[in-house]
């Protein structure tokens, strides 16, 4: 909005002041708005992104049709199969492929379901849709235990932390947070907000705490909760969940195992029952392939019993399972219920996305993500670049965090990628944010055979680096 729009208001507030006098308080307001010094210290390197051009400032070319082939008469025509492929790939407006670690590209049908007409959130048609979505979540998480409980609440993945801390922790409890990047710091901070004492077990950047270290920590003190980030979006580090769960159940069976799966559910294998997990929390906009706005949690029967046995009232109102448990149980049983208004359009989108995911074996979906990840990581190696996660067993299948060549920063390379129709993310780990970029490869960009997002992004990375003068060392 232009500054001139505020002049009538300023004249009403300062009627006897000259233009110059009125300008002083106005400029003071603007300067305070632009002041970059934070009121509180933030656990995020926003300053590294501010010097990067906005997408609107960078021109990019929409994807060109695949090369045509010559006919016997020498004319150029598009192969019929290619014409069909291009026509069906997407009905969305031309845009650069969003290949960050979430939000991701969305399927046309998922976006179309968002335009569902308005309906009552307690009406029979919507209740049926919500019920089916909750049941499909059980299939996605691979739990058949009737005591397991899914929660779908309007909010981001961060709300999952609040649900865990507010409902499974009580003031004075101890939590062990396994640290593989930015999001462990934030989860620990969330615990402290609710009066739960958080101890972090940290690994070097690009690595994860080793099982013997975890075992020693569990033997040293009794923890009510242990948390692990399955894939840390800031580093691309993948944690091994099954072996960790076996360790926790053997060494400290009373400790609840909570998995932050925001950047893993839908792209990494998770077997809720078989692995003995207590909570997996996630969000709608990453591997599940639904627009942002839903906090999704699966809690075990053991976790729910722990919640019901708590001595104090949950320390959040909106995130309280005391309020949400009967709602979720009623919706799943096809009964209308109400605590706070859900988003019918987002629930429809979730229903569509889950229907697509479950239309094929989950093992096939995970295999396709592994194959795409292998292709991306081979491209990185061929360019002579390194990943933050140097050990193969630590490397996620839905994203790759890539160290840039010495002296190159994200704002220098990201606009070159955008010109080629792909969007990568800058660094997020505050200690090294200016040294790396992040490539998200999950969801429809991986599993839809009509899309060429991954191949196009790999080519763009090579060309974009070449444009800024990078040459692989011989």
TrEMBL record:
Any one GO CC term of the record: peroxisome
PROSITE patterns with a match to the protein in the record: AA_TRANSFER_CLASS_5
Record's compositionally biased regions (Polar residues): 68-80
Entry EC number(s): 2.6.1.44
GO MF term list: alanine-glyoxylate transaminase activity; L-serine-pyruvate transaminase activity
Keywords assigned by UniProt, alphabetized: Aminotransferase, Pyridoxal phosphate, Transferase
Cofactor(s) recorded in Swiss-Prot or TrEMBL: pyridoxal 5'-phosphate
Stretches assigned to the Aminotransferase class V domain: 115-429
SUPFAM superfamilies: PLP-dependent transferases
GO biological process: glycine biosynthetic process, by transamination of glyoxylate
Chain intervals for the UniProt region annotation (Disordered): 59-91
Keyword Transferase assigned: yes
Pfam family, any one: Aminotran_5
Family statement drawn from the similarity comment of this UniProt entry: Belongs to the class-V pyridoxal-phosphate-dependent aminotransferase family.
This protein's name: alanine--glyoxylate transaminase
Species per Swiss-Prot/TrEMBL record: Coniosporium apollinis (strain CBS 100218) (Rock-inhabiting black yeast)
């Amino acid at each position: 909005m232009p500054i001139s729009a505020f002049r009538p208001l300023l004249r009403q507030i300062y009627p006897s002041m000259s233009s110059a006098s009125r300008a002083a308080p106005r400029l003071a307001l603007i300067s305070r708005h632009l002041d970059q010094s934070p009121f509180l210290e933030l656990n995020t390197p926003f300053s590294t992104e501010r010097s990067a051009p906005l997408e609107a400032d960078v021109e990019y070319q929409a994807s060109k049709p695949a090369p045509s082939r010559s006919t016997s008469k020498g004319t150029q025509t598009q192969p019929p199969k290619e014409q069909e492929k291009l026509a069906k790939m997407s009905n969305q407006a031309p845009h650069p492929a969003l290949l960050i670690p979430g939000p991701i590209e969305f399927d046309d049908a998922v976006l179309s379901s968002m335009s569902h007409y308005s309906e009552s959130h307690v009406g029979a048609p919507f209740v049926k849709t919500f019920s089916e979505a909750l049941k499909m979540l059980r299939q996605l998480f691979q739990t058949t235990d009737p005591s397991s409980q899914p929660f779908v609440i309007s909010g981001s993945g961060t709300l999952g932390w609040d649900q865990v801390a507010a409902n499974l922790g009580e003031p004075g409890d101890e939590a062990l947070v396994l640290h593989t990047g930015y999001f462990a710091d934030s989860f620990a901070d969330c615990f402290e907000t609710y009066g739960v004492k958080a101890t972090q077990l940290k690994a070097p950047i690009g690595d994860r705490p080793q099982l013997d270290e975890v075992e020693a920590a569990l033997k040293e003190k009794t923890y009510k909760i242990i948390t692990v980030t399955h894939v840390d979006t800031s580093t691309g580090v993948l944690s091994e969940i099954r072996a960790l769960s076996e360790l926790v159940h053997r060494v400290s069976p009373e400790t609840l195992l909570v998995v932050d799966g925001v950047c893993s559910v839908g792209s990494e294998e998770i077997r809720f029952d078989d692995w003995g997990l207590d909570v997996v929390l996630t969000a709608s906009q990453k591997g599940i392939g639904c627009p942002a706005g839903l906090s999704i949690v699966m809690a075990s029967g053991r976790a729910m019993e722990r919640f019901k046995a708590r001595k104090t009232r949950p320390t959040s109102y909106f995130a309280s399972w005391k309020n949400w448990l009967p709602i979720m149980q009623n919706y799943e049983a096809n009964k209308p219920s109400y605590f706070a208004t859900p988003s019918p359009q987002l629930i429809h989108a979730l229903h569509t996305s889950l229907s697509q995911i479950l239309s094929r074996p989950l093992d096939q979906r995970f295999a396709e993500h592994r194959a795409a990840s292998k292709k991306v990581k081979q491209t990185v190696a061929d360019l002579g670049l390194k990943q933050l996660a140097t050990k193969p067993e630590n490397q996620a299948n839905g994203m790759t965090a890539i160290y840039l060549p010495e002296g190159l920063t994200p704002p220098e390379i990201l606009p070159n990628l955008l010109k080629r129709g792909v969007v990568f993310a800058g660094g997020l780990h505050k200690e090294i944010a200016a040294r790396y970029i992040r490539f998200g490869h999950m969801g429809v960009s991986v599993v839809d055979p009509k899309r060429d997002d991954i191949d196009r992004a790999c080519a763009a990375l090579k060309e974009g680096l070449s444009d800024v003068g990078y040459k692989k060392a011989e």
